[in-house]
Specification:
Number of helices: 4
Largest sheet: 2 strands, parallel
Order of helices and strands: HHHEEH
Strand content: 5-15%
Oligomer: single chain
Shape: elongated
Length: about 140
Amino acid sequence: MRLIVIGIAVYLIPATPVSVRAALMPVHVYSGLFIFTSVIATALMGITEKLIFGLKNPAYKDSPPEAVLVNVLGLLIAAFGGLVLWIATRPSWKRPKEEQTVHNNSSSPEDIKVGTAMTIRTDQESSLETRRRNGKAEESG
């Protein structure tokens, strides 16, 4: 319960400094992965327990179609969990750092980037970039 309160305080309150968020990010990520792994393990144990104690005739050891179905489901759940854990722990899958840009004459959503670095552009630089994007860079002189 304490971790939930800390998570809300750090990541949902805008006044929290970026340095505090960055310092707690590894704990946040690996706590989430631990909870996810616990959910996967609980799901696997639950379906296995239900199958073992629920099958009377034929018994689980005789591999009826229900047992095969649940075993395949268990393999798929385990593969999904493993894939999510693998992706979440790879640096190559992390979101790249973005540059924060402040434009003076544009309010379109694609011109606003949020990140750690901040660049302030003049109106002339912004309009030149817009011309380049629209294919009119050759007209500017």
